[in-house]
Amino acid sequence: MEELKRILSVYPKRMIDLTRLEELTKSFVHTYEEFADVILQLEKDQILEMVKSKGRTARTPSLAYQYRIQKSVLASSHHQELQIYRNKLHPAILLDEYFRIDPVVWKQDLPFIEKIDHYLKAFGFPNEPVPAPERSFELVHDEKWIVEKGGKEVLERIGLYERLQIIPVSEPLMFAVNPGQIHRENQFHLIVENKTTYQGLLPALVDTEFSTLIYGSGKVIIKSIEQFPAQYPVEANHEFFYFGDLDREGVSIWYSLTKRQSVKLALPFYIACLAQEPVKGKGYQLENREALQAFLTNFSKLHQDKIQKLLRLGTYYPQEILKSKQLQAIWRESDWKALI
């Protein structure tokens, strides 16, 4: 029954002959009696309406030779089911997309949506990003679901992919090299969160004491940093510095990164940001208290108070608040050895 409803909901015509109905159901209906029961039930449910001018068969039970498909009734049934689930699932799970697409997609996604609903009600939203396979196992007990089995698309349909803090499967690390520094015993590496800041700093790289400038690409760096030894197989004492947006997410990215790689804050950039006027926005971001406390310990009491206040007021400092020339001057002129 449900399979035939799905077929009828996407059938390209409004009229359908009895012989065509038999063809469409032969893979799951095996006798005439079973077939007649299904069709008569759809008549009763007003999903199939007899075309009176075509008449009915002489067989028992008797069926119409042709039917009109009442797609509005089919849609109504599907929409009613969505409304029921909308009321019982976690409020963050959005079902709007399923009102517009083939009902079969809803049926395929539902078992996974129910598992995600259970996870959210039990644990809430995660505070830290983790690689896709790890989050996938937490959600549906299948580490391959997000990347290999369509899970990313399901999470995007229900509006949760970004909120579940998923790090894509490890991407290659993107960085530029300063050839004048690669033979030093002690080497510095600067990681920046955003592409604009990377491009703004790049021209100054050869004028600094840093061996590389690394593009973090938001949360991607948390996983891609593991590629560094393979992509930069230089034996040295490596010191990493990080500069990202001064908002809750930027703080969380740095904190998650520290759990995989020892990395210090590039304090001269942050202190320069704090001398500017903050920007409205990002108030919706979730706070990771542990990450924020670890972040704040790098600053003076005056700066700690200012950072806490600006986040509380729903403001932040994007990296782009510092212009290219200012970024380059800070990078060239700061005493980075003093931060080690």
From TrEMBL:
<feature type="domain" description="Wadjet protein JetD C-terminal">
    <location>
        <begin position="184"/>
        <end position="261"/>
    </location>
</feature>
<dbReference type="InterPro" id="IPR024534">
    <property type="entry name" value="JetD_C"/>
</dbReference>
<protein>
    <recommendedName>
        <fullName>Wadjet protein JetD C-terminal domain-containing protein</fullName>
    </recommendedName>
</protein>
<dbReference type="Pfam" id="PF09983">
    <property type="entry name" value="JetD_C"/>
</dbReference>
